[in-house]
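seq/struct pair 1
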Amino acid sequence: MQVDGERLTVVVPHGSTVQQALALAEVLLGELDRVQPASYAIVAADTLIQVTRITEHFEIETAVLPFERQTIRNESLPDGETRLLQPGQNGMQETTFRTVLEEGVEVSRTPIKTSVLIEPQPEIMMIGTQSAFTPVPIEGTLAYASAGNAWIMRNSSGSRRPLVTTGDLDGQVFKLSPDGDWLLFTRRESNDDEVINTLWLVSTLDPQPELIELGVENVIHFADWSPASPPYIIAYTTVESSLAAPGWQANNDLSLLYFSPYAEDVDQEILIPDNAGGQYGWWGTTFSWAPDGTSLAYASPDDLGIVMLDDPAYESMIRFNPYQTLGDWAWVPSIAWGNDGNTLFFVDHGAPIGLEGPSASPVFDLLAMTLDTESTIPLVARTGMFANPSTSPILRQGSGERAYRVAYLQSLSPLESDDSRYRLMIIDRDGSNRRELFPAEGEVGLEPQRFTWSPQGERLALIYRHDLWIVDAAAGTAQQVTGDGQAIAFDWKP
């Protein structure tokens, strides 16, 4: 027997095991010690039992986390001019190592736990990229996200300032409050496999605002302010992170968050708890606030209806055949409220035009539905699946009528609209006076997207070739207002 640097001879009864031999030799084994042969093996006269002493100890080391250097392109500064927006600051990291020794000799050293004691603060340098774009007057507040940061414009597109400079905005949620005083947005989360993003707020009025975390995670489809705010109410729905495509499993829930600028905490209320949803429920449900803030319209891959706040439940109004995408995504009809509060504009999955089944039909039409009669009205045939209707604010007519217009996207290849580009169109709310707005004939079409009206309903903002543009709804003229090619989201409020 070889143990602790010595060679021992042990006489044991016939048929004894290694474990019994060790006991007779009064050799005690540590929890990690290794024995060869195994303790249950039968020993013979010439068996050599080798005991290897194994010990471990733990060490904690601290290390500096160097800060990153980031640059932000600012079109309000002259080309080439630089300004230090935020100085860099190193962080501190603590790592616990497990060291294993065999017979006093180190054989492995493995990190088993890492904790960040101080998060590094990146150095942010602003670099001027002033372009030759003619400044455009801006009514209210126009906010946009570019390269993971948020900017706001007021009075003129030539006057803009950074609002959030963390570089991690993902564009899933980017909504101004109805009064334009607050921005609701989501940030990517890269340090936790269970968290896709998190929901945040920032004041648009404070010259040095603090970011406010709302304690809500994994918002993909919907989060938006109640039109009745303030007092500020936010509705949202969530998903669970998943390793399988598309990267989430929808909860098909609906919750409200009550926010007060003067309170330290926010209150939350679950309207609809987690549920499986309907067909293709794994993809999820989206919502749209009614103009009076008393209800929300919802849309899922096979259903469209209303959720009342005073008696929350999915009240189905229209069911249709879900579109068979043959991929890891599902089509959800886009919905928009008319500003009369009694009309829903939506994209409908139409009937087959050939031998294909109903779920494979390539036909998508723009319809309107009056809620009091639940009757549907065809507006535009074969718009494409990503028509994304949007209604203007109320326009006062000379007759005193409260009218509004509907903008939507028209697919350039209506029967292949899943990968088609689109053109911005406008119609009156009854489908009449259809006009093409943007881009001009012969120019590259738009990527499918959501767009928004200006507060007075005279212009629209959209993203074209990865930059923010403003389009005049009457003349169809357009002006590019950013030039960095990294715009991902925007919103426009009074």
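seq/struct pair 2
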Amino acid sequence: MAYKKQTTGFKSIEADLQTGDIVLMEGIHLSSRCIETIEGCHFSHVGILVRSEDIGLNLGANKLLLWESDTPTDVKDVIKGVAKSGPMLVDFRERLKYNFTHGEDSHCSIRHLYTERDAAFKQKFKELIPTIHDADFPDTWHEFLNPVLGRALHKKTSLDTMFCSELAAYTYMHLGLLTDIHPVNSYAPVDFSEQLSISLLKRAWLGNEISITIDIL
């Protein structure tokens, strides 16, 4: 019998999650499956967790948010109060409920970021959000083309649009945790998984993938 990695219930890990932790998701739609096939990895989406109080948002109970770039759904951006395309801050619980209830994703894992979360770290994250919040999500053609341009040709593309791993890389660079020698559009979700596991600066590192069971539906 082949053993599978044990899972952890989301409710049991929720309180431990901190700003900067990585979220990886396995999608089931055609575009997600194409990304996973090209990467040779079962993750097609990546986002970054944020505690609301760390970025000066008074949402009560230090709410856990997800900083991600995606196409719009019924889950609203907490800053604009409406659903939007591109970079967005959404209630992480609501995102999980929506994605798994509507069959958007089939698996989710967390990687803890180990670094000093001092006042400067939180201020940098807060200042970053408005600089890219109004960007859009690329159309399907550029969603696949832009990473190829970045990874194969080292060619930067416009920040008017951002896909998920591009936003994650942009954020880590702004926080001083990731080198800027590679363009942000050269990164893919697989880079944030254990499979490739990006090398971070300032002695920061990402922990092992924690596979979570969605026990809040």
